[in-house]
Amino acid sequence: MTNKQLQAIEKYTKDSMAKTLDSQHDFNHVDQVRKNALRMVKILKIEKEIDENLLQAACLLHDILYIKHKFGFVTWMKEAKYLREMLPDILEKFDLSETDRYLLSEAVYHHTFAFPFRRLNHKYSLYAQILQDADQIEMIDKTRIINLKEGKKFSRFYKIISLFSGLFVKRIRKNINKFINIPEIIDYFKEDLE
User: Fold this and answer.
1) Which of 11, 76, 119, 141 is the most buried (most CB within 10 A)?
2) Could you give the C-alpha distances from 153 to 98, 147, 156, 159, in angstroms and in order?
3) In which region does residue 123 sit, left (phi positive, over 0), alpha (psi from -120 to 50) or beta (all else)?
């Protein structure tokens, strides 16, 4: 993926996510997932094995459904379905190669359900594994938990989630190896998760 294509995707995402229907899934969230993913690439020393622009694009677009859908139980369960409906039309705007479209789509479609279902991406590309792990780490980051408590003012579903968030986060952190595709990265993120 070219720098120009990545810049166009970043601009599209930033503009689109300004209209997000969910305060927890905004541009700041996808940008933090991108930062986590790039950090993972450096930790794993795989810069030559991966197209960092393509990985960043997948991170930026992984929650684009929230420009049309409010977060709730149904949206959470149907996230991959909604992404499959939306993403192809979005990707058409950027003149990507077939390989780039495939890898980006695969990563985006399969980034969900590490927690609580342990549905990890071992059989998918490194892009899919890194995106899922970067998103999982961001989900239990201390800043995200603070933002969740703020978000409960605006959403009944977040109100319910916030009641159990301490328990969920404690369980995830204690058993993080079960919810991560590439467990060797965990120690490098410990400070963010405490």
Assistant:
1) 141
2) 43, 11, 8, 7
3) alpha
**Extents of the domains making up the chain:** 3-189
pLDDT digits (tens, 9 = 90+) for 61-107: 999 998 888 877 788 788 899 999 999 999 999 999 999 999 999 99
Q: What is the pLDDT of residues 131-160, one digit of tens each?
A: 999 998 888 765 655 555 555 555 555 555
CATH class (in words) of the domain with range 3-189: mainly alpha
The rounded distance, in Å, linking the Cα atoms of 46 and 51 is 10
Would you mind telling me the total number of residues written for the chain in this entry? 194
Which pair of structure tokens corresponds to residue 101? 């479209």
pLDDT over 90, % of the chain = 53
Whether 154 contacts 82, CB under 8 Å: no
pTM for this prediction? 0.86
Half-sphere exposure at residue 164, Cβ-oriented, CA atoms within 13 angstroms: 8
DSSP of 34-101, one letter per residue? HHHHHHHHHHHT-TTTS-HHHHHHHHHHTTGGGGTS--SHHHHHTHHHHHHHHHHHHHHTTT--HHHH
> How far, in Å, CA of 42 to CA of 144, rounded?
23
Phi and psi at 74, nearest 5°, equal -65, -45
Lowest mean pLDDT among 3-12, 26-35, 68-77, 103-112: 68-77
